[in-house]
Protein backbone atom coordinates (compact mmCIF):
# COMPACT_ATOMS: atom_id res chain seq x y z
CA UNK A 1 0.00 0.00 0.00
CA UNK A 2 1.40 3.39 -1.00
CA UNK A 3 1.49 6.21 1.51
CA UNK A 4 -0.13 9.55 0.74
CA UNK A 5 1.89 12.77 1.09
CA UNK A 6 0.09 15.56 2.95
CA UNK A 7 1.73 19.00 3.05
CA UNK A 8 0.54 21.81 5.33
CA UNK A 9 1.63 25.06 3.69
CA UNK A 10 1.22 27.46 6.63
CA UNK A 11 3.23 25.23 8.98
CA UNK A 12 5.63 24.09 6.22
CA UNK A 13 5.26 20.51 7.41
CA UNK A 14 4.77 17.30 5.49
CA UNK A 15 3.64 13.89 6.68
CA UNK A 16 3.10 10.57 4.90
CA UNK A 17 -0.05 8.71 5.92
CA UNK A 18 -2.05 5.61 5.06
CA UNK A 19 -4.94 5.95 2.60
CA UNK A 20 -8.17 6.56 4.53
CA UNK A 21 -6.52 8.89 7.05
CA UNK A 22 -8.42 12.13 7.69
CA UNK A 23 -6.61 15.40 7.10
CA UNK A 24 -7.24 16.22 10.77
CA UNK A 25 -5.39 13.07 11.83
CA UNK A 26 -2.61 13.95 9.37
CA UNK A 27 -2.38 17.42 10.94
CA UNK A 28 -2.02 15.86 14.39
CA UNK A 29 0.72 13.52 13.10
CA UNK A 30 2.54 16.51 11.59
CA UNK A 31 2.14 18.48 14.86
CA UNK A 32 0.08 21.14 13.08
CA UNK A 33 -2.42 23.01 15.27
CA UNK A 34 -5.93 23.10 13.81
CA UNK A 35 -8.90 24.85 15.36
CA UNK A 36 -11.73 22.34 15.57
CA UNK A 37 -15.09 21.93 17.19
CA UNK A 38 -17.32 18.91 16.83
CA UNK A 39 -15.01 16.74 14.64
CA UNK A 40 -18.11 15.29 12.92
CA UNK A 41 -18.39 17.61 9.92
CA UNK A 42 -21.19 19.70 11.34
CA UNK A 43 -19.60 22.88 12.76
CA UNK A 44 -17.17 23.81 9.96
CA UNK A 45 -14.52 25.10 12.34
CA UNK A 46 -11.80 23.08 10.60
CA UNK A 47 -12.61 24.20 7.03
CA UNK A 48 -9.43 24.59 4.96
CA UNK A 49 -8.55 25.22 1.33
CA UNK A 50 -7.11 22.04 -0.14
CA UNK A 51 -5.31 21.36 -3.41
CA UNK A 52 -5.22 17.81 -4.77
CA UNK A 53 -5.48 16.04 -8.10
CA UNK A 54 -8.75 14.31 -8.84
CA UNK A 55 -9.01 11.08 -6.87
CA UNK A 56 -6.45 12.06 -4.20
CA UNK A 57 -9.25 12.57 -1.67
CA UNK A 58 -12.42 10.62 -1.02
CA UNK A 59 -15.56 12.48 -2.07
CA UNK A 60 -17.20 14.55 0.68
CA UNK A 61 -19.95 12.80 2.60
CA UNK A 62 -23.41 14.34 3.03
CA UNK A 63 -22.59 16.07 6.34
CA UNK A 64 -19.38 17.65 5.02
CA UNK A 65 -20.97 18.71 1.75
CA UNK A 66 -23.94 20.27 3.57
CA UNK A 67 -21.71 22.17 6.00
CA UNK A 68 -19.44 23.53 3.26
CA UNK A 69 -22.48 24.65 1.23
CA UNK A 70 -24.18 26.21 4.29
CA UNK A 71 -21.01 28.19 4.99
CA UNK A 72 -20.87 29.44 1.40
CA UNK A 73 -17.40 27.99 0.79
CA UNK A 74 -16.21 26.89 -2.63
CA UNK A 75 -15.44 23.35 -3.77
CA UNK A 76 -11.72 23.74 -2.95
CA UNK A 77 -12.61 23.82 0.76
CA UNK A 78 -12.80 20.66 2.82
CA UNK A 79 -13.39 19.89 6.49
CA UNK A 80 -10.22 18.34 7.86
CA UNK A 81 -12.16 16.06 10.21
CA UNK A 82 -14.02 14.51 7.26
CA UNK A 83 -11.69 14.67 4.27
CA UNK A 84 -9.90 11.33 3.84
CA UNK A 85 -6.87 10.88 1.64
CA UNK A 86 -6.73 8.21 -1.06
CA UNK A 87 -3.51 8.56 -3.03
CA UNK A 88 -0.78 10.85 -4.30
CA UNK A 89 -0.26 14.24 -2.71
CA UNK A 90 -2.65 16.56 -0.91
CA UNK A 91 -1.75 20.14 -0.02
CA UNK A 92 -3.60 21.92 2.77
CA UNK A 93 -3.22 25.55 1.72
CA UNK A 94 -4.81 27.43 4.60
CA UNK A 95 -7.78 28.08 6.83
CA UNK A 96 -10.86 28.78 4.70
CA UNK A 97 -12.31 31.08 7.36
CA UNK A 98 -9.34 33.39 7.83
CA UNK A 99 -7.28 33.25 4.63
Question: Could you please describe the fold and organization of this structure?
Answer:
With 99 residues, this protein is α+β, with helices and mostly antiparallel strands. The protein has a single domain, classed as Roll (Ubiquitin-like (UB roll)), CATH 3.10.20.30. It has two helices and five strands, in the order ββαβαββ. A five-stranded mixed sheet has the order 2-1-5-3-4. A hairpin with a 4-residue loop joins strand 1 and strand 2. The longest helix is centred in the middle third of the chain and has 9 residues. The chain is globular and about 35 Å long. The model has no long low-confidence stretch (mean pLDDT 93).
Features:
single chain, 99 residues, alpha+beta, Ubiquitin-like (UB roll), five-stranded mixed sheet, 16% helix
Amino acid sequence: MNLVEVHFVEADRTVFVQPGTTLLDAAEMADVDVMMGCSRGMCGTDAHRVEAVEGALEDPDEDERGTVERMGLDAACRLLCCARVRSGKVTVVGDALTD
